Amino acid sequence: MIRFRRIAAAVCAAIVVALGGTALIIRSGVLAPSEQELRAKYFLPTSRMIEIDGAPIHYSDEGQGPVILMVHGTFGNLRMWNDWAALMSNRFRIVRFDRPPFGLSGPDPEGRYGADREAEIIAGLAKALGLTRFFLVATSSGGQSVTRYAAQHPEQIIGVVLSNIATGPPPGVFVDHRNTWFTLQSRKVSRYLNGWHPAAEWWDVLKTNFINHDRITDALVTEYQELNNRPASYLASLVPRPAVSASARTPGDLAAITAPALVLWSENDSERPPQPVAEEAMALLGSADKTLTIVPRCEHMMPVDCGPESAAAAAVFFDRIAGMADPTAGRSP
User: Fold this and answer.
1) Is residue 331 predicted with pLDDT exceeding 50?
2) What pTM, to 2 d.p., does this model score?
3) Which of 72, 142, 163, 183 has the fewest Cβ atoms within 10 Å of its own Cβ atom?
C-alpha cells in the first residue's frame, strides 16, 4: 500500500512537472510561428501592408470595377471572403482588410480597438487607395463599424450588405451559450498561457458556427489557431472595453443609412436567428431600397460556411445596384 502511494505520488508529481513545463514552453512563444512566417503562409497574392495612424493593417486589393469593401467578423480575417472575391473580382474591385488585432493586422500602438477605430481604418484605407464611392459589406461583429461608417459617410456609399449582424445591444452581458464545456475551460486556461488556444478549441468554435462541417478542413482550423494565437490578439484582449457597447448605437446608425441595402442572413444562424434579428435589421434600416434574402443551410460564419452560395446571392444585389451607379465610381484616379 505504501509502495502504491509512493508510485501514485511520483506519477502525480511527474504530471505536474510536465504540465508546468508545457505551460512555460507555451508562454515563451516558441511554439507560435513568427510574424514573418505567418505572412509567408497567409498572405494572398494580392496582400499588402499599410500603416494607418501607426497601426499595421493587412489588406487585399484585386479586380476592376465598382469597389466592394468587405469587413469580416470576430476571430476571422480577410481570407473569409475568398469565395466572394473569386466570384466577383472579374467585374468588381474587391478590397478587404484584417480588423486589428485579427488576421495579420495590429497591434494598435495606442491600444485602440472596436467599432470607432475600425471606422477610422475604413476611412484611412479609402483615402490611401483613392476610393471615393464604394459598397460596404459586413458580417457578424463587423456590422458595428460598417453601419457606423455608412451612417457617417452617406456620400461615399453605393450600397450596403449586412450579414448576420447585431441590431442592438444584447440584454445584459453577451454570453455565447453555444460554447461547449471544453471551449469555456480552454478559454479560462488561456489567460495563464499568454492567450494561447489549442487547435481543438478552434475546431469546436468552427463546428458551432458551421452547418456544413465538411468545409471545416485541418488547414482552416490551423489558420484560426495560428492567427488568433498571435501576441497582438492576446494584448488586445487585455485592453478595457467601454461600458456601453458600440452595438448600442447600431439601431441609430441603421436608421441613418439611406443607401440601397441587402440584408443577407443565414437560415440556420443560431447566434443571430433571422427571426427576429434579420427582421429587426429590415425594420430599422432607413433605406428606401432594401431587401431581405435568406441563405438556406447556412450558419453564423456565412462567408466560409456557405461562401459560394452567399456570394451568388450578394452578386445579384451588386450587379443590380452597380447598373444604377457610375461604373467608374470608386476607382483610383
Assistant:
1) no
2) 0.87
3) 183
